[in-house]
Here is the input.
Amino acid sequence: MFVVDAQSGILPVEHDVADRLRRSRKPVVMAANKAESWKTEAQAAEFYELGLGELHTVSALQGIGTGDLLDAVVAKLPPPAEDEPDTTVSPARSAPSSARYPGPPAMRSTR
Here is the structure.
């Protein structure tokens, strides 16, 4: 994952990083963070210039676009090997549906 700052624009070092990522021939997901408004989302479009494919605009602060970013990351993951054990949790073995919280401990007087 290559995360850039949508507000600052393309920095010279980001061209170098993009070149290395392209040469690696590995899947890359690019995210432009700090895209809290339509204006910064539009500014982020300049990152397509780096040639790394689809750009995902997100705001980590506000949680905008993070679901789509996660979907893109999962799509790039290799399928599980057949000899790997299944680590998914079945609904019957998941956490209890309700829990009891007794509240804070009672205040004690120090006098």
About this structure: The mean pLDDT is 83. The first helix runs from residue 12 to 24. DSSP finds three helices and three strands in the chain. The radius of gyration is 22 Å.
